[in-house]
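Reviewers of the previous submission asked for a worked example of the structure-prediction workflow described in the proposal, so we include one complete record here. The input consisted solely of the amino acid sequence. No template or homolog information was supplied to the procedure at any stage.
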Amino acid sequence: MLSVPVYDTTGQQIGTETIDEALLGGEVNFALLKQAVVMYHANRRQGTVATKSRAEVEGSSRKLYRQKGTGRARAGNIRTPVRRGGGHAFAKKPRDFRQAMPAKMRRLARNQAVLAKIQSQDAAIIDGLQLTAPKTAPLARLLARVQADRGCVLATDGRDLNVYKSGRNIPRTEVTDVAGLNAGQVLSRRKLLFTRAAFARFRELAAGSAAVRE
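From that input alone, the workflow returned the following structure tokens.
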């Protein structure tokens, strides 16, 4: 069983929560995590770049001057890539960089990413995190107390609008619903934080994905 420390809103450790590593895959599969991270990065690429080839730029196709007898270097038409205003030799065109992974692999990669964070002692649970209004300062102080101010993903159970609005202005901090958590998010930040309700929800999700694998 793995132990995850539980902190209160003052930054004091008040206990631990346990989770069976078997629910998270048992052992970290680094090849799977690499594949997942590459996929998430590739899917963020726009792929909308476009440049004109020599066939697409404006200009005549006639030879600029005769081949020999001028004392100058030979030249073709004005649209050649070696001349100013000419087309690109290898013109870039819009393309789709998207990659895909089966749902089972994505869920396993998420669980493996959380397993890696727990094993490296970079995961924690925050108990009693409740904000009555969007306030950045209290959340920033809390993150500093639990040493997560250099970058973290904070997972909540459902979309907590007050916590989300409080954390969106904090650099290198991402607040997300635990149901939408993925390996790319987990591995992109130093720390992984759960609310207590979010950790309970994640345990249910991990148990469900483990049952599907069996």
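Residues 196-213 form the longest helix (18 residues). We consider this example representative of the routine output the project will generate in years two and three.
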